[in-house]
């Protein structure tokens, strides 16, 4: 007699549209009834070649190397060459510099440091250091995309800076994704700039990410998308069920940075599901939920999990579109735990033996497909508006033409107000205004840009223009 399904099994299978748990073959990557969105973009030959270079063995080596530093707690020792967060910091910089060395000068690697004065979970002034690699764009370098993981770790007591804190899943797995992306992209020429970031201070309060986001904001950086990879190391839940071909993407609706005037507009048009971050999440589904990544992207319509937070939040708070990748179901015995074996023989602790390095490699492919397509495609259209100066049963959209030299035109997308994804696409041509013979009161519209290579931008959701 087969065992009864657990509640998680039922819920996961339902969310996946009937996808069976276990290890499906490549032919099962698109299960029955799973149709790509109308806005989906098939992977290019260039992208498929890039994805093939992502190496699970290198990812495993990165995770194990980070674990070897004993603890990477933000408050741990910074001047020991073998143990503590300082040793991890120096190794990360060395790795990123080795990738930059083959980039022909396009990639630079650096430390981004500041002294955090006493604050919650930081009892004394502490230097917090992010390790960054920047791959400068060749065509539109002013447009920036950021991908991050946090290299600090913790155990049960968030203030314990001396006990072994392996942090394999949380979050050496995310840092391994970032390093592997930097490695495979270093020798390539993205049109726009990509920043690869290993940040510190996450477990103490998102300090490193907040500093990076603030520095970008102060510099006036045009960050059009940010992704954090946090706890992406395993597809096994705490009850043993497996979902190895799904990754969650948390994407907020109502923007964290929304002003009262922006809130009034959102309420008037019903735009709760159409923030820039939700459009970014739809873009991820368009370009990374396919046979090339062998992954299903399960978009979750909230900023993060209950009682949790991540390094995308400081970016959201500063008005940047940002989202979080996290494994499909967490095992809480293997995160934020002292390394120990209890009286029943159960092993606790965030150890590398509980990571699935093939799964992390597939998560890296989802990130790579997203970032590379974003960097090669046009930027999100600016100035998108729906003209509301007169009451009519048609819809006229206007927008500002982009400055990309390879821009070829625009598309209008639409969907029913109750639909989660765009369902219709109209070729508008190389214009900055377009009229559709449908009422703006009954459907949602958006605008996206197209370049000569056929790559599409994320969708811009229009505000009303009186």
From TrEMBL:
Task: Tell me, in one coarse class, where this protein mainly resides.
Answer: secreted
Q: What keyword terms does UniProt attach to this protein? A: Carbohydrate metabolism, Glycosidase, Hydrolase, Metalloprotease, Polysaccharide degradation, Protease, Secreted, Signal
In the UniProt record, which is one GO cellular component term?
A: extracellular region
- Signal peptide boundaries: 1-29
InterPro entries tied to this protein: FN3_dom (IPR003961), FN3_sf (IPR036116), Ig-like_fold (IPR013783), M28_fam (IPR045175), Peptidase_M28 (IPR007484), TAT_signal (IPR006311)
Q: Where in the cell is it found?
A: Secreted
Q: Which domain of life is it from?
A: Bacteria
The cross-references to SUPFAM superfamilies, in alphabetical order and at most eight, read: Fibronectin type III, Zn-dependent exopeptidases
Region Disordered, as annotated, extends over 14-43
Which CDD domains does this UniProt record tie to the protein? FN3 (cd00063)
| Single biological process term from Gene Ontology | proteolysis
Q: Which GO terms describe its molecular function?
A: hydrolase activity, acting on glycosyl bonds; metalloexopeptidase activity
Compositional bias of type Low complexity: which residue ranges?
14-32
The UniProt entry, under PANTHER family, shows: METALLOPEPTIDASE M28 FAMILY MEMBER, PEPTIDASE M28 DOMAIN-CONTAINING PROTEIN
- Protein name per its UniProtKB record: Peptidase M28
